[in-house]
Structure formats: structure tokens, C-alpha cells
Amino acid sequence: MRAVIMAGGKGMRLRPYTKVIPKPLIPLNEIPILEIILRQLQYHGFTHVTLTLNYKARLIQSYFGDGKWLGLSLDYTIEDKELSTIGPLALINNLNEPFLLMNADILTDIDFGKFYKDHLKSKAVGTVMLYQYGLNVDFGVIERDSEGDIVNYVEKPSQNVLISSGIYMLNPESLNCIKKGEKLGAPEFLQRLINSNKRVKSNIHEGVWMDIGTKKGLDEAEEFFQKNRKKILKTESEDLMEKERVV
């Protein structure tokens, strides 16, 4: 099973931390977030992972090496310029099977193996994992009728919206709509697939999903991981954790 992790961002919202280390190496309870993700993927049956890198790429390569100490085969694609979420896929030469694509700044308990299998069964060209996100409004919201009369006043309401989790399953044919070297984000890419009459499916994850791309998100994720480590890393091998990394 194959996966691609987008790990090339500069992490501007996490400055000054990311001036020193790239965001994927920022630790949660002493474990870099990207290592947590890789260990989850290995647990769920993935064997080959490609990391797309740009900012401080050598630090990430030096830390993870060939991935054998994680039970994975790791390789790397280096962007000469920022290509957003989807653009780097055109630089990978051997994406000839369905693959998982995800960001490197997510803490989640998604069953990646089940997501992979569900996508294969769907026969869709792509599947987006969604998450129900609570959106809080910091002001009182007014509802009025056609005459301008106020009919309802709700103080600081909250509502749930479905958002992209930054986790996708894609078939190789989806890469046909990406031009090599172009900067391409997920929204435009998915719209291209839809406009080409390709079926794009969605699943909804109802468990844990946390974005560590902000200081607030990082603090919340670290607190959660410290208390719920076994929920995120379901099986931990002490030999693996203590084994000397081959750099």
C-alpha cells in the first residue's frame, strides 16, 4: 500500500518555532508529528511512503532516512519551488497504484487501512475524508424577515460544517489533470476532476482530527496526545522506539 505525505510547507503560522525546525518535526510529547503519522500508516498496512519536501528538506531526510527503522520504505521528492498541496504529485514518477495523500500536520485516529479499502470498493477516482467541524461565531446573529423586522436573535451561535480533513485517496488516472511544475491546490484539483466527469466520493470521520498548523492547535494536540497516546498509536513497539535511528 502506497502513501504520499505533503511535508514541504514553511509553517508560517507556527513561527518562531519553524524558523529552527520544519513543522513536520515539531514534537508532540517528544515524538515529531510526522513520525506519529508514519507509525500509524505502518500499523495500518502501508509499506511505501513518499515525502514531498521543500522547506528545510535535509533536516527531514536526515531524521527519517530510508524509513527502515519504522518498518517502511521511504523516498523523497524535493520541490525547487512551492507547488501547494497537489502540484508536487506531478514530480513523482512511479505513482502507478491507488495511493493515500495527506498533509503532515494532522493528529488523527483515522483507520487509514479501512479508508484505503473503502476507496477501492467505491470505484471513484478520488475520495476525500471529511470532518464535522464546530464553527463558532463570536457575535450575536440576527435573523430578519423580508420587511426588515427582527424575528430571532442568537448570541454567539455555533454550527457544524463539513470540512476537508486534508486526507485523500486518489487513483493514478487523477494525475492526468496536473501539469508538471504548476502550483495546484486541492480545491482546484478536485474541481478539475469533477469538471471532467470523474467521480469524487467523500467519507466522514467521526473520531479525532486536529490541525497542528497554529500555536493554539499545536497546544491542544499536544495535550490530547499526552493523555490519549494509545488511542493514536494503537500498538507501540518499545524496540522500535529505542532502536538507534540510521541517518
TrEMBL record:
<dbReference type="InterPro" id="IPR050486">
    <property type="entry name" value="Mannose-1P_guanyltransferase"/>
</dbReference>
<dbReference type="Pfam" id="PF00483">
    <property type="entry name" value="NTP_transferase"/>
</dbReference>
<feature type="domain" description="Nucleotidyl transferase">
    <location>
        <begin position="3"/>
        <end position="226"/>
    </location>
</feature>
<dbReference type="InterPro" id="IPR029044">
    <property type="entry name" value="Nucleotide-diphossugar_trans"/>
</dbReference>
<dbReference type="InterPro" id="IPR005835">
    <property type="entry name" value="NTP_transferase_dom"/>
</dbReference>
<protein>
    <recommendedName>
        <fullName>Nucleotidyl transferase domain-containing protein</fullName>
    </recommendedName>
</protein>
